[in-house]
Amino acid sequence: MNHPEAAKKFVKDEQRTTWHDQSLWFVRTKRDKSSKSLPEWEELRNMASAIKANVLSHLDEYLEEFERNAQANGVTVHWAKDAEEHNRIVHSILAKHRVKRLVKSKSMLTEECHLNPHLEQQGIEVIDTDLGERIVQLANEPPSHIVMPAIHKKKEEIGELFAKTIGTEPGAKDPQYLTEAARQHLREKFLAADAAITGVNFAIAETGGVVVCTNEGNADMGVHLAPVHIACMGMEKIIPKAEHLGVFLRLLARSATGQPITTYSSHFHKPRAGTEMHIVIVDNGRSEHLGQEDFRRALHCIRCGACMNTCPIYRRSGGHSYGYTVPGPIGSIIAPARNLKANHTLPFASTLCGSCSNVCPVKIDIHDQLYKWRQVIAKKKEVPLSKQLAMKVAGRVFANPGLYRMLGKVGRKVLRLPLKPLIYNPLNTWGKARDLPEAPKQSFREWYLENYPKNGK
Amino acid sequence: MGSREQILARVKKNKPEGMPLPSVKFFEEYASENLVQAFSEVLEGVGGKVVSVSGYAEAKQQILGCYPDKKNVGSSIPELEMGGLTLDAIDDPHALHQLDLMLVKGEVGVAENGAIWVSENSLSHRVSPFITEHLAIVLEKEKLVWNMHQAYSREEVCLEGYGVFIAGPSKTADIEQSLVIGAHGPRSLLVVLI
C-alpha cells in the first residue's frame, strides 16, 4: 500500500475529510477532559510504561508463568509462530467441535491474521458482533480504526447497508433505530453460535487469566452462551500481576474514548462447567520486533487509539489509507517492523508534531520512532528518486553556510518574480496544496547582525 | 523444535536487559471524601440510575417501583426473592433469553468510574447480567472504594473462574459517535445502594 496515493483518494471529498477530522477531534477532546480529571495521570503513564518495559525484558518468563497458571485453571494453551499457524489452530479447535456458526468480539489480532476468510473458506459462518465491526464486515471492508471500526462511515451509508443486508427500512438513518436492528439481528446469532472468539486486552501471568474490555457486552454474550471459548492474543499482551490491571484499566478507556472505564471489563479464568476455554498465544513477527532496539517500545501498545484521534494526518487521510491492520501513528511504526518493504511509505505519513507521543498512555516514543524509520528507509533507498536527490542537494546546501546565504539571497529575489506557472503545474506535486510565501526583505541573519551587532561574529 | 520452543527461544535471545518492576501506588490522597456521592455522579454520567435504601425490604420496593411491569424476573440475591424465574432449575443458559429483569449482588463498587465487581460466586449463570433486558445491582455502601487500585486489593475481587466490572448499561457509539444505550446487553442499569 502506498499511503500518499491512498490518502489522495480520501481527501478528494473535501467535506468528508473535514467531517472525519472533526469526528476524531471530538474524541480527542473527550480524552483530554477525562485525563485531566486525574491529578496522577502523568504518574500513571510512567508506571504503565515501566511495567511494560519490565514485561518485555522478562517476556519469556512471564509467558511460561502465564501458560502454567492458565493450564492449572483448566484452560488449553496453544502457541502460534505466525498467522497461518494461528488460523490452523483455531480451525482445528472449531473442527473438533463441529462448529458451523461462530461469533467473534473485537480482535485486531484475528484481523492481522486474516482469520475470517480462512474460516469462511472452510464453510464456517463467522459473525463479528461489535457493532462497528459488524458494519464493516457487512460492507466487506477492513476496520478503519482500532476502537471505532466504522468511524469513516456516515449514518446514511450504514442505513443503506443495513437495508440491503439485514432488512431495515430503506432510507432509515437514525442511529438508535439502526443499533436496535443490529441488536435483534445479532441476538439471533448469539443464541445460535457453536463457539465464541474474543481478543485479549490483558493476560495476567500471575493468575493465568485474560481480561477483555467492551462497551456493548458482546464478548460476554458470546462466551457465556457458546460451548467453546477461544481467546486469541498477541504475546505482548502479558502483564505480570493482577494489581497492574488497576493501572491499565484506569488509562485505557480514558485514553480511548474519554470514558472513565469501559462498561464491561470481563475477567476470564476458568471455563464455565461443561465447556472449553482455549488461549492462542501468537508471535507473528513480535519476537523479531522485540530484537529491534530502537523500535521495540512499540510493543508497549495497549491499543487505545489515542494516537490516531490526535494525529493530523490520520484525521485527514482515514484509516484505510494506511493499508495495515493497525493504522495511524502506532501502526506506522509497527508495520515497518513487521514488513518494511510493504509498508515503507507509512513512517512518512506524519508531520512529526509529536502529539501521538504526548497522548500515548504507555509513553511510546512514537514520533521519534517515525523519524528513525525514515532514516532506515532512506538508507535502504526505499524513498523515491526525486526525494533522494532533493535531500542530497539540501544536505549540501545546509552543510555550507556561504552557499546557504547565497542561495537565500537568490531565493528572496526569485520569489518576487511571477512564478505561478512554474509552481502550479502538474509536474510539481509540491505546488498542489501549497502557496508560496511572501519574500522577506532580509534573512534572519542579516536582521540579527543589524540589530545586535555586538553579538555577531 | 515446536512453535512454543521456537518462540520462547527467540524471545529469550531478543529481549532487552532486565528492567525493574515498579511498585504500584494507590493514589489514595486523591480520594473523594464522599464516596457515595462521587460513585452516584459518575454512574449516572454513564447512563446508570442510583438509589439509596435502608435495607432489603426497601430495595425490593424501589426495584418494583422502577420496573413495575416486568414479567420474567430473575434474582441471584437470596435476600431478594422476587417470585419470578427459578434460575437454579435452568440448565441451559440460552433459556435466559426471556429475562426481562435480573437482580445481582455487587461485591465492590469503585467511585472513580462507577464500576461494580460482580463475580460468578454470586451468579447462578454467567450470562445472566448480560442477556437480561434490564439489570439491577444491589451493593452495600460499605463496599465502595475510591479507585481501581483499591478495588484490586480487595479480597472480593478474586480472580478465579469469572468476574466482571460493570459500569452502566450496555452501550455503543459506533454509528457516527451517537451514543445509544442498549447495544447487546441491558437497556438500563439500576444500582441500589444499601
From TrEMBL, chain A:
Any matching Pfam family: LutB_C
GO terms for biological process, alphabetical: lactate metabolic process
InterPro entries for this protein: 4Fe4S_Fe-S-bd (IPR017896), 4Fe4S_Fe_S_CS (IPR017900), FTHF_cligase-like_sf (IPR024185), Helical_ferredxn (IPR009051), LUD_dom (IPR003741), LutB/LldF (IPR004452), LutB_C (IPR024569), NagB/RpiA_transferase-like (IPR037171)
Keywords attached to this entry: 4Fe-4S, Electron transport, Iron, Iron-sulfur, Metal-binding, Repeat, Transport
Sequence ranges assigned to domain 4Fe-4S ferredoxin-type in this UniProt record: 291-312
UniProt-recorded Gene Ontology molecular function terms: 4 iron, 4 sulfur cluster binding; metal ion binding
NCBIfam families linked to this entry: LutB/LldF family L-lactate oxidation iron-sulfur protein
Protein name: LutB/LldF family L-lactate oxidation iron-sulfur protein
From TrEMBL, chain B:
Domain LUD: 98-194
Classification via InterPro entries: FTHF_cligase-like_sf, LUD_dom, NagB/RpiA_transferase-like
Domain of life: Bacteria
SUPFAM superfamilies xrefs: NagB/RpiA/CoA transferase-like
Gene3D superfamilies: NagB/RpiA/CoA transferase-like
Protein name stated in the entry: LUD domain-containing protein
Source species taxonomy: Bacteria, Pseudomonadati, Bacteroidota, Cytophagia, Cytophagales
